[in-house]
Amino acid sequence: MAExxxxxxxxxxxxxxxxxxxxxxxxxGVFKGVFVERDCYLKITPHAHRMAVKAEYERLKWLQGRIPxxxxxxxxxxxxxxxxxxxxxxxxxxxEFDAKPDDIIRLYAKAIRRxxxxxxxxxxxxxxxxxxxxxxxxxxxxxxxxxxxxxxxFKERSWESMLEELIRLRPNDADLVxxxxxxxNDNVLLNPSSGELAAFIDVGFVAVADRCTDLAxxxxxxxxxxxxxxxxxxxxxxxxxxxxxxxxRFYQLFNEFI
Length: 258
Hints:
By secondary structure, this protein is an alpha+beta fold. Helices cover 34% and strands 21% of the residues. The chain folds into two domains: 3-87, Phosphorylase Kinase, domain 1 (2-Layer Sandwich); 92-257, Aminoglycoside 3'-phosphotransferase, Chain: A, domain 2 (Alpha-Beta Complex).
């Protein structure tokens, strides 16, 4: 269909039907459909959206051939919005893989390590602490934070107090690697048969950044599913790394603003 919650699609994309999967903040949306005879997803954001899909489009282009990511089928802009169409991937969320917990954690850690080990020298995207703090500040100022997604440890706090602590904890240096930036297990798709990496999805935050940008998210995800023993197993399979408590706290706090 050509209309999506009162939005008219550009002519190139009027090849529906498009099924609404998720309606996000500030006019964003995710849809499933068929485009050029391919099963696909359509993402829409306004140009001024804090997570505009142009960022994901640019990263997908750069990542092609470096690590598995979805194929780009179309990218279109009009006066108000950005539209990204990507092919579906034959994969399942990492934690849905049918295996023992330690094997699942090993496969997840292997995929993350593969991304973190990519060469960074020619990557045009950065995500340094000052940029992350600015992102958090803008999210609070524009009321684009999501209370529903907050970790229990932060639910009783105001966003302003969290922002103040974030600024106070700003690291002076960084352990730079290629990060995903939203590295929860549902953005790491595994081949349902072999367990090998099928694709990283939702890659709009991929950049050269501190390793803890991902590890802080992964800690929360793994502990929620598998307890602290799962986190220890992840570090073992990933290649144990020493993490400074203050640095780790900064990134745990920052990730609440994503």
